[in-house]
Amino acid sequence: MSKDITILAIETSCDETAASVIMNGYKILSNVVVSQIESHKRFGGVVPEVASRHHVEAITQVIEQALKDAELEPSDLTAVAVTEGPGLIGALLIGINAAKAFAFVHDLPLIPVHHIAGHIYAAQLEKPLEFPLISLVVSGGHTELIYMKDHMSFEIIGETRDDAVGEAFDKVARVIDLPYPGGPHIDHLAQSGKDTFNFPRGLMKEETFDFSFSGLKSAVINKLHNCKQKGIEVNKSDVAASFQTSVSDVLTAKTFAALEKYDVKNLIIAGGVAGNSELRSRFTSMCNDKNINLQIPELKFCTDNAAMIGAAAYHLYEKNHLADLTLNGRNFIDIEEYAF
Question: One Pfam family, short name please (predicted)?
Fold first, then answer.
């Protein structure tokens, strides 16, 4: 396409209200994110009703700020993109209804985007994707290995059978009295600890690319409970380090086994847990050793944002994957539904 494609993207799938203006799928003209973490901290996790109310309060201002930062008028836009799902249904509907209203008023095409596709395409904000590739998606609600032959071609080759890895981080953080969100706090605490507990590595002995973290989570909880009953003081740094090492061992082993089987030399790590320092370090080192091209978005693009939605939306627009004003939110969408 010779003409620049400028997309206003909106993301409200969980507890960030975000809007961004992206040109040609990679050039960020603006990126506005309003986080709700402080509101949800006191509950130890995201409360859907609270999240929805915050989105209602912030969505209009966030969109206006994104346009202002980009120094654009609605008439300068090519299309509007919005996260269709997966996510909290009430939260999704705020962004979707805002996007539909904006698209209707300004006579713009509406692009529905899969949230996980957005996380994968966050890597495109730094450099073009190289195919074929495998993406390891690690977040609060997802743990998946996805094979891609080309843009918007998704094949799930492995996924969690129970807890997502980010969910396990939050639950383990809670039992060792760390605040929400647990992942960054465990990461920080683990840096001063050692893997002294040797927690289990789920499904490591099975020939599958699937993951399981519920056994690991239970092992941590049971160990802490048993130590408390016996009056044994536990080093929380060692618990954090042992848990994080177990997770890293599983994720790296499964991912590199998939890269070898599919004969792929390009790897993307996507999602909020991609911000984990040990995971980034381990994958960087191992990819260098094995001559694998690794792409991990910078930290601000690992967590939920609208720039990633705009990056994915560019390719959907090219494929004429548009929605009408009947678009509704879906709390679960298999990413393979978005495959072209």
Answer: TsaD
